[in-house]
Specification:
The protein is α+β, with helices and mostly antiparallel strands. It contains 3 helices and 6 strands. The protein starts with a helix and ends in an 11-residue tail after the last helix.
Length: 146
């Protein structure tokens, strides 16, 4: 393993163990515009995914199957409630983190955020909306259209 992997791996393990606890992670965004979240306010808000069925195991299966086939996506971890995925841009290899939290009522809270930089040119919002379309979710109303 290279030197940077020795630094990053413990951090990822720490974060994933925090995210995978029974209490769910905070899905807020920093002040920078390179993040969208269903629990953020203002321009960073995006609608959560909504499913007719409230069987969380079926929702999880559908999310995982879709993400497994998504280009440049790597599922880092998942449990009954939370899925953590990293997307890597093809050319510059920038990393974006996606957190999905499956709620018992059939909604899925989302957060997509760039790891570095300030502005993402709408990449995270577009990714969530494309994922929403691929999942067959018709709830594409975000903060801008309210």
């Amino acid at each position: 393993m290279n030197k940077s992997a020795h630094c990053i791996l413990p951090l990822l393990l720490l974060l994933s163990s925090h995210w995978l606890q029974a209490d769910v992670p905070e899905l807020t965004c920093p002040q920078s515009p390179n993040c969208v979240s269903s629990l953020a306010s203002g321009k960073q808000n995006i609608a959560p995914f909504s499913f007719d069925k409230s069987d969380t195991s079926q929702i999880k299966e559908k999310l995982l199957a879709t993400l497994h086939n998504w280009p440049n996506a790597e599922i880092l971890s998942s449990n009954d409630q939370i899925i953590i995925t990293v997307f890597t841009t093809p050319w510059l290899k920038f990393k974006d983190d996606l957190i999905l939290i499956i709620r018992p009522n059939g909604t899925v809270d989302v957060r997509s955020s760039s790891r570095i930089g300030y502005y993402d040119f709408g990449t995270n919002r577009r990714r969530i909306e494309r994922l929403r379309t691929a999942l067959g979710d018709k709830t594409n109303i975000d903060a801008k259209s309210k």
